[in-house]
Structure formats: C-alpha cells, structure tokens
Amino acid sequence: MTPQEEVEDLLARVAMGDRKAFSTLYDRTSAKLFGICLRILVDRAEAEEALQEAYVRIWNRADAYRVNGFSPMTWLITLTRNIAIDRRRKRPARPAEALDLAETMADAGPGPEAMAAERSEAERLHQCIRELPDDRAAMVRRVYLDGDSYAELAEATGTKLNTVRTWLRRALIQLRECLAR
Amino acid sequence: MTGPGDTDMPAGGGGGGEDSALAAEYVLGLMPEAEATAFETRLAAEPALEQEVVAWTEYLAMLADGVEDEVPATAVKRRIEAAAFGPDARSARTPFWRALVPYGLGAVAAALLAWVAFTFGPLGPEGDTPLLVADIAVEDQPLAIHAGWFEEAGELLVIREAGNVPADSDLELWVIAGEGPPVSLGLVPEETDRIRYTLPQAVASLLPDATLAVSQEPPGGSTTGAPTGPILGTAPITYY
User: How far is the C-alpha of B158 from the C-alpha of B108, rounded, in Å?
Assistant: First the structure.
C-alpha cells in the first residue's frame, strides 16, 4: 500500500467511527498539519487549538472526503489550512512583516513526503513557480502558506491593494498557463 | 488516486485565464465574502469552473510540502481525542445519565453561570438550609472549600472559606459518583469568596453520597471535560 492509499484507507475507517484508525491517522499526519497551523498562526497555543478543530472536523466529516474527489492529503491540508486561516483573519490585525525574498528559496522543491505518483506534479508546480518573477513567487507562497490577505500583502509591499491584486492575479494566470503546458 | 493531472486543465482553463485566476483566488481565500458567495453560485452551475477549483486546490496543497513538519505536544492528542470522541472517551462503560448531559459541564458554561450567579445574595436562598454539604480542606495549604446544595433552588453554593486560588491557574470542582468519571461542577471563585452554580438535574442527581473533589487546572478550567491537573482534595458529600 502506498502512503497515499494508507491515508485513504485510514480515512475510510475513520468515517465508520474507528477510533484506532483515527489515532493512527493522527500519528501519520499531525506533524504535517501542525506545521501548517504553526506557519499560519505562529502562536503555538493558537496553532494547537486550530489543530484540534481540524482533527475534530476530520473525525466528524471523514465521510465527506470521498464525495469531493481530492487526494487524501490535499483534503487534510486544505481543511486544516482553511481553519487556521479563518482563525488568523478573525484576530486583531498585526503589523505585516516586510516581504522577504529569501522565502522563495526556503521552500524550493518538494519535501521527502511527496509520493512518487505525485512527485512529477509537484515538481511541475515548483518548476512553474520558479518561472515567476521572484517577488511574485514569494507572494503566491505567502498567500497560501502564511495566509496573507491582499491588505496584508499591500502593506508588506508598500503598494495599493488593487495593484497587489492585479500582480497576484497575473502571476496566478501565468502559473496556470505553465501548469497546463 | 486523484491527482491534479487527472483533471486535464485545458489551456486557458474553464472560461479563460480570468476564471482560472478567480478560482485560484477563491481557493486561496482572498475573495471578499460577497464575491465568494457569488462565485459559489456560479460554481454550482459550471462544472468546468468547479474542475478549475479542484485543480488549484490540488496544486496549491503541494506547496505545503515546503512547510516544516512540527510534532505537536503529546497532550494535544489526548485533548483532541477527548474532544472528538466526547466526554465518554476514557470509559467504555457509559453511565446512563451521560446521555442527559449535552456536553458535560464545560468550564466555559460554568463560568457563564457564575457570571449570572454573582448577582445573588451572599447566603443560601432566602434563609434556606442546604440539603447536602461537603467540606474540603487541602493538606499543606491554607485552602478550605465549603459547598452546599440547595435542592429547591437547584443551586450549588461554593464558598472559598480560606486560602486563595493559586496564581495562573484555576481550581475546578468535580462530583464523582461511584465508579463514574468526574463531572465538572464549576470553578472555585477567585475574586470573591463565594459563588452559586445552577446545576442541571442530571448533574444534581449525582450529588447524594458522591465525592466532591477539587483539582488544579489551567486558567478557565479543564478543556477536556475531565480533571487534567492534580487533585488537591476530596470530601464526601453528606446530608446536612
């Protein structure tokens, strides 16, 4: 069984209320999902709360996973990211950090967890992101991984919100065209 | 397996690059709420647009590969399992009254009750005498807690007779009936010396001949529905 099939199998058992499967799923996936929460929320206690909300939702909604046609890790990552971002947006605004181009380098390339079947897709994505101008690539990452809003991006780059939106949308269209090649 | 490759993004995407950018913005959570709602209406009617959303979701999730894994503290898993499985998580036998208590008695609910209860007078309801009482004296600490149950009013009066709530923590009261798991009654008052809690019938019915216990918990009380800190003291609940 590939790691991907294993997660899929665990989710199917969780959907039937299998607590042991839930415990195994947690052991397999919590470091990744907690990493995502921590990256978005920074504060450890808040990240733990977000992680809890995510896993409780996974426990309650695992049956919904099949319906949407996502690969299992995508479903888990997206669900967790959305919970963390929701919490981030609800808290009082913090001063944005300046956009750091070093971020572009830090995230280059997929991690060891990427599965063989997914690897080519992931490599394609990273390749296409590398084709973007550095500052636009950093924006895409920042929006997805840190959960920045347009307002925060505008503040970080010292630009008007509409300008930032135009930049990012152009970058996304370029990325999308590269992916479709 | 469903990978983004299976979705066969046609060049230009569903309805052109503009729609693809919209789909990406939607996935990224960048849309203002009104715009997102309008987009969702379109999504329901346009399969190509939906496919675009799925493809973006898959691709962007791959960015998470670049996020450092971080192992959460062990306690987090216990908390999550308690929250997911409900208050019965630790005990296979489910006492019948569990079904009557919606969420156990969370510290938050108890705190809300406490806020209301502050406005009551200092003693038992109108010269009433309590039906049940318990007195906890904590060893090695000058902490003494007296609790009285007023049957007719359906109120538990908790008096901190001596000592203080330790800094950066809360003291939580529990009723333990027989072999059943502890059920939270509320927090020991910190600012004032007494407080009243209105207890649901299902919890009140546990009190006769049960044990009252006090545990030290993080501020706001246990978040698991069970004591997480040390039990500082216990006392039998007896008829007054």
Answer: 17
76-105 of A, contacting B, C-beta below 8 A: 77-78, 81-82, 85, 89
pLDDT in tens, B150-159: 888 888 888 8
CA A14 to CA A8: how far, in whole Å? 10
Of residues B1, B25, B67, nearest to A145 (C-beta): B67
Look up the pTM and report it: 0.58
pLDDT digits (tens, 9 = 90+) for B94-148: 333 223 223 233 333 333 333 333 323 334 444 567 788 888 877 667 788 888 8
Contact B161, B146 (CB under 8 A): yes
Contact status, residue B21 vs residue A169, Cβ threshold 8 Å: yes
How close, in Å, is residue A157 to chain B by CA atoms?
A: 17
**What stretches of chain A show up as alpha helix (H) in DSSP?**
3-15, 19-41, 44-61, 65-68, 72-90, 102-106, 116-131, 134-141, 150-157, 161-180
> Domains of chain B by range and CATH?
13-66 (no CATH), 92-239 (2.60.40)
Q: Residues of B with CB below 8 A from A117's CB?
A: 1, 3
Tokens of A75: 């479903």
Ramachandran angles phi, psi of A160, nearest 5°: -70, 150
In this predicted complex, what is the ipTM?
0.84
Residue type (1 letter), B2: T
Can you say whether the dihedral through the CA atoms of A92, A97, A101, A106 is positive or negative? negative
Q: Domains in chain A, start-ordered, CATH in brackets?
A: 3-90 (1.10.1740.10), 102-180 (1.10.10.10)
CA distance A164 to A158: 9
> How many interface pairs between A and B have CB atoms less than 8 angstroms apart?
157
